[in-house]
Amino acid sequence: MRISPLFVLILLLIGVVLTIGGAVGAYVGVRTIVLQSPVELPPPPQIGGVRATSVPLLPATTASPTLETPGAVVPTVDPLVTPAPTEIPTWSDPKRITVLLLGIDQRPMETGPFRTDTLIVLSMDPISKTGAMLSIPRDVYVKIPGFAAPYSPNRINAANYIGDLEEYPGGGPALAVKTVESLLGIPIHRYVVINFKAFETAINAVGPVQVCPSERIFDAAYPDSETYGVITVEFLPGCQELDSTRLLQYARVRHNAGDDIGRANRQQEVIRAVKDKILTLGGVSALIGQAPQIWSALAENIKTNLTFDEIIQLGSLAQQVGEIKSAVLTIKTAQGGQLLPSTLQSGEQVMTPLYEEVYALVGQLFSVTQGAPSNPQASEENATVFVANGAGVDGLAGRTSDRLKASGFNVVGVGNAEGVGLYGKSEIRVYGSKFKSARYLAEVLGLGDTLITAGTDGPPGVDIMLIVGRDLAN
To answer: pTM for this structure?
Structure first.
């Protein structure tokens, strides 16, 4: 019975609340607080225990983010000599960003390692301004990458424990990321680990949050994190506002409440409810005065390879997200599902993934082409495209140009790229803001993982430069 890793709450609290209404002054003030007191995760009993080696939450410069170098350590900046930013940085990478959210049941004086008994994959698409959430039950039985018996196969919630215990590079969160990537077949760019204190701090800052249980929830053996005993919790059907203590109980309870699957659905309900609450606060004045305390409490109770500025940038992006698709890996029935109940030789009950069904669900939620128009003309962008041969294969640029023209693209020229013959993978450079057409171009050519970058000083009259690599020649 564990806590929901409500990263969206933290992200929105620090990011959206400090950016609503163009609150540059608020952002500068909070960033100055962080820079004056660079936050490194404290010594034990910090999250993850003494062996954790993941990158702590550190202040960063306002350089554009990139998904190619996750977890890079950013040098501490001296606020006395560093010019104050004049605007809030925005997330500039056009590719989908995916974060693994890990919740641990860390109690006073416990140092770990910990099992991450709640796992949620959160993803945002900067182009389509859509999001997705997928909850993974803790008892899903998978291979742990790089490990054999007795560690692998194992429940997926053991990956963080094993990674910290065995000093895996990057610690438990890094191994948890690898394990989830192996299960879902998609890249995970960042991770966040939180405990009870982070949750309570954020909820206390925004005030009571409304949830709407559809049926009575009653648990006479709810684990009390303070006394290590049990208490009785009850929620009646109907919409109701809950403070941090009650909302934590609502997010954690599982007995007589749908067990892990029901709990996962409630956690997603809480994420949506917190997002709605923050976006209806009407401004930043109510929370800006608490910014130092909020920052201090959160920084002491989270572990992440996101930098401070990335959290701000993602918060700004999150407030633009409209549709949020959500799903939970569930037991296979006639109506669907991705897991089979299984019994180990020890008699323990686990859930075995049906990978074909898992991949089908993942494709619906996290498609690399989600948000791309079915036709580039439909976006009214009418982007102009130049195709450059970077592979050094005769005729490749011309053949690629023909494919694009057949799909409706306005190809304005072909030629050789600077450094022809050196490109193993194709690249797409956008000169301006026509990223929807760039995403559709990647879809047409089957280049879902191709690097899409914002270019500068492009050729006259060219919106998109496609540099054809050897991947298309093959």
So the answer is: 0.66
Question: Confidence band (pLDDT; 50, 70, 90) for 77?
Answer: very low
pLDDT tens digits, one per residue of 11-39: 444 433 333 333 444 455 555 555 544 44
Buried b (16+ CB within 10 A) or exposed e, 243-280: ebebbbbbbbbbbebeebbbbbbbbbbbbebbbebbee
d(CA 393, CA 151): 47
Instruction: Convert 390-399 to b/e letters by CB count within 10 Å (16 or more is b).
Output: bbbbeebbee
Backbone angles phi, psi at 459, to 5 degrees: -60, 150
Q: What is the topology classification, in CATH, of domain 376-473?
A: Alpha-Beta Plaits (3.30.70)
Number of H helices, E strands in the chain: 14, 19
Contact 22, 88 (CB under 8 A): yes
The superfamily CATH assigns to domain 7-366 is LCP protein (3.40.630.190)
pLDDT in tens, 229-238: 889 999 999 9
Q: CATH 3.40.630.190 spans which residues of the chain?
A: 7-366
392, two tokens: 């050094």
Residue range(s) of every CATH 3.30.70.2390 domain in the chain: 376-473
| Rounded distance between C-alpha atoms, residue 254 and residue 158, angstroms | 19
